[in-house]
Amino acid sequence: MGALSHIRVLDLTRVLAGPWCAQTLADFGADVIKVERPEVGDDTRHWGPPYLKTPAGTDTHEAAYYLAANRNKRSLTIDIATPEGQRIVRELAAHSDVVLENYKVGQLKKYGLDYESLKAVKPDLIYCSVTGFGQTGPYAQRAGYDFIVQGIGGFMSITGERDALPGGGPQKAGVAIADLMTGMYSTVAVLTALAHRDRTGEGQYIDMALLDVQVAMLANMNSNFLASGTPPTRWGNAHPNIVPYQTFQTSDSWIIVAVGNDGQFRKFVEAGGRAELADDDRFATNPDRVRNRDVLVPLLAEMVRTRDKHDWIASLEAAGVPCGPINNLEEVFENEQVIARGLQVDLPHPSGGTVKLVRNPVKMSATPPQALTHPPTLGEHTDEILRDVLGYDDGQIAALRGQSVI
After folding, report:
1. Catalytic residue ranges
2. Is the pTM of this model over 0.90?
3. What domains appear along the chain, each with residue ranges and CATH number?
């Protein structure tokens, strides 16, 4: 029984932003009904390899991408292009607290599944639309892709190596951050709307846009520009105001060194056998080091390259110099802190094996999120939902299946 176990969410989303929101709500106990196209399902089911494997080592054709964003849900297949399918969705909306959708602007209106249509059957409904650019403005009809939004929204202008250096130029993030953050903001919006409904009885419409979120999440970079009028530039893994505060290549890998004051700088170069650098007038203080970074950083890079990652981490931690490795994901899941925090969870899967996932990172004393059920197979709960939520009998369900509605 999670904190949201009294809430039912009708999830008409696919790919990542919407499903991430729905999964977060499901982790806290909401009954999430994931509506998918018959025979095809969520696009991400096919975004592989890699796929989940059976105990015998064969592919299940459940792509790892899909598995990442769909645990704790129930899957129902409906062809919403049919009148019968549309009727079922309206019936489910009448039994739900929240509807999530990420169709193109106006697309659901022709099916009678837009906010105004569903509000007529459920006046206190919370209806959240997720699109690339929102319901208004000159870009509203454009398809929204995370990669494109990272560019339009300014993220890539401040991410990547400096243009003047080898490999310089704009760089996207390694994960779809606009999608993920939109999923998180959408979760906050839905919970806020539910709190308002519980006090007033009033539902509402939520208009979420990837571009809005991408711009908003630039945080202090936005403020830097708005205060100065000068757009921030890319600094790669370096810092514009602190030196050394960057990555360095060791003899076998990479590390991060984050020197925050002059004392830490002295300890760093002492650990590397180059104590004289701390006494050099060009490098004695942080302003000096910033002014002379082009001279200092190559000297530090040469120093760090003489020893391996583990040797450097041990030495710098012992000296009190902030540092850390740059782990690949194998190293992440072998990390003692990650293991101690229980970030990996293994759930039974209908294939007979288990699906390995990452738990919701929130820890709470009374109402923690839980990973209880595997990401559903396509249509796994169709009969169950129609029977238990809408009261359909076996004959009605068989008729719908015979008409290819479900």
Report:
1. 179
2. yes
3. 8-217+339-402 (3.40.50.10540), 245-249+254-325 (3.30.1540.10)
pLDDT tens digits, one per residue of 12-51: 999 999 999 999 999 999 999 999 999 999 999 999 999 9
User: What pLDDT sits at residue 165?
Assistant: 87
pLDDT in tens, 90-128: 999 999 999 999 999 999 999 999 999 999 999 999 999
CA nearest neighbour of 258 among 220, 280, 299, 286: 286
